[in-house]
Amino acid sequence: GYDQPSCDGRQTIVHLFEWKWADIAAECERFLGPAGFCGVQVSPPMEHIVSAGDGYPWWQRYQPVSYKLESRSGNEEQFTDMVQRCNAVGVRIIVDAVVNHMTGLGRVGPGSGGTDFNADNLDFPGVPFSSMDFTPKDQCPSSNGMINNYNDPNEVRNCYLVGLTDLYGAKDYVREKIAEYFNHLIDIGVMGFRVDAAKHMWPGDLEAIQGLTKDLSTAAGFPSGRRPFFFHEVIDQGGEPITVQEYFGVGRTTEFRFGKKIAWGINSFDQLGGVYDPGWGMAPSEKAVVFVDNHDNQRGHGGAGDILTHKQPKEYTMGVCFSLAHDYGFMRIMSSYYFDNSDQGPPGSSYGGTDDVPINGDGTCGGGWVCEHRWNAITQMVKFRNAVAGTQIANWFQEGDNVAFSRGDKGFFAMSKYGSFDRTLQTGMPAGTYCELISGCANQVTVNGDGTAQISIHNSDEPIFAICVGCDG
Ligand code: ARE
Ligand code: CA
Questions:
Q1: Which of these, 28, 98, 390, 391, has the minimum number of CB atoms within 10 Å of its CB?
Q2: H helices then E strands: how many in the chain?
Q3: Is 196 assigned a catalytic role?
Q4: Residue 173's CB: how many other CB atoms inside 10 A?
Q5: Is the CB of 343 inside a 6 Å radius of any atom of ligand 1?
Q6: Is 214 helix (H, G, I), strand (E, B) or coil?
Q7: 166 touches ligand 1 (CB under 6 Å)
Q8: Rounded to the nearest whole angstrom, what is the distance from the C-alpha of residue 147 to the centroid of ligand 2?
């Protein structure tokens, strides 16, 4: 089905936000493949607006001009080379699909691929889309044609989101053009799609569009008959009529409540036991994509507030590592660049381009890129999550600022807020000597015949402990 990633059981994807295709290809080969990542969510690959007047912001790329693969991250040849090289090392590509709308009103061409367009005339010849392909005005209940009231699903789906020209997803031609874009990407070898602004599309329209997509490419190494993976960006924090549940028939949904729960739990460890809260309407594990932060809420855009980011490295490390140790949802890690204001594009955007991602001798990134996915504890916990896949949380322990639990009999995780912990705990694991992952195996841990072990944490930057069956660092 649409909710199953196809990456040989690997458990984590990383959003390499605004990276160029050539850098992603290199990162798959030199890092993500060996580290056991399932895939990469890439920035929208289609042609987008170019806005010097706004300082070439990152959000240019959420305003489609055409479905030509000509973006700030590179051209079609570079995109294809990336997909092939990542596939070759078992790392799959997930495309950020912006198909609810085209550009904002007032925008004119050319786009990043040189294609002309005029948004006020609803004229996008690069697809082509014309005025007949946008949601008829009489279907939008708001007085100014914009979405003002999130309590009215008709308004949320049929009006313009922040002035973005809204595609008419009920129309066969529109569905076919979107499916053609998806099928082009499937032919190149991608594994799936994050559907941007899915809250603003009718689930029935998504079902029809997805129904027109091909199975994944066997030439790209996917088993035959495998459907593309779809997850839908639906910001549901419990206060609006549109819920994630409406989208379960068409794949997974983004679970924004999880990031809030993690931020609250890191602040106050006694709340960590309830990070999956079905009473709050959170998606069940097999329908949720989870993340501590995303490219919007880390900079005050959609769903912001009470969110941990790389700007608090220690708390962020704890939040991401706890999430990776947990058994809830399919996990996405954010990989960011440093920014001073919320519109600022990636390094190099001041001249309209994007800089390369340089890798330092110690494995960290330079050039203004944060590369959270390369932070030691986070990288190690990606391995842990693979090793314990399919097991559930057991042997829960929480006391003050310390928390610990096992994943079935496959792994044991512990975290101590102030980096100081010594305790004998039941690990639920087979007797033996294990490598402690966060220390890179500098510490060895003995699990006794009765499953108990001495758990020690003495590290204030990465106050985390992890052992797992078959993990040798
Ligand atoms: C930009 C400018 C606008 C301008 C517009 C058109 O900032 O001032 O009017 O262009 O010219 C991103 C940026 C936007 C940007 C847009 C297009 O965040 O600032 O607009 O790109 O360039 C809602 C949606 C949710 C959406 C968030 C941001 O429901 O789908 O808003 N998230 C996705 C992406 C974004 C992207 C878009 C959608 C558009 O992840 O990166 O926008 O493609 C409550 C509601 C939420 C609502 C939230 C914020 O929490 O529950 O549903 O999220 O408020 O309004
Ligand atoms: Ca819409």
A1: 390
A2: 9, 20
A3: yes
A4: 14
A5: no
A6: coil
A7: no
A8: 10
Q: Is 399 tagged catalytic?
A: no
Main-chain dihedrals φ then ψ at residue 470, nearest 5 degrees: 85, 10
Residue whose CA lies nearest to ligand 1 atom number 14: 59
CA distance 75 to 269: 46
Tell me the C-alpha distance between 189 and 86, whole Å: 10
Here the tokens at position 153 are 């699903």
pLDDT in tens, the chain (473 residues): 999 999 999 999 999 999 999 999 999 999 999 999 999 999 999 999 999 999 999 999 999 999 999 999 999 999 999 999 999 999 999 999 999 999 999 999 999 999 999 999 999 999 999 999 999 999 999 999 999 999 999 999 999 999 999 999 999 999 999 999 999 999 999 999 999 999 999 999 999 999 999 999 999 999 999 999 999 999 999 999 999 999 999 999 999 999 999 999 999 999 999 999 999 999 999 999 999 999 999 999 988 889 999 999 999 999 999 999 999 999 999 999 999 999 999 999 999 999 999 999 999 999 999 999 999 999 999 999 999 999 999 999 999 999 999 999 999 999 999 999 999 999 999 999 999 999 999 999 999 999 999 999 999 999 999 999 999 86
What distance, in Å, lies between the first and last C-alpha atoms of the chain?
A: 33
164-166/192-195 β-pairing: unpaired
Question: Distance between CA 321 and CA 413 in Å, rounded?
Answer: 9
Give the span between the Cα atoms of 331 and 291, in whole angstroms. Answer: 6
Task: For residues 228 and 217, give the distance between their C-alpha atoms in angstroms, rounded to a whole number.
Answer: 9
Distance CA 227, CA 38 (A): 16
- Both tokens of 310, joined, read 């790389």
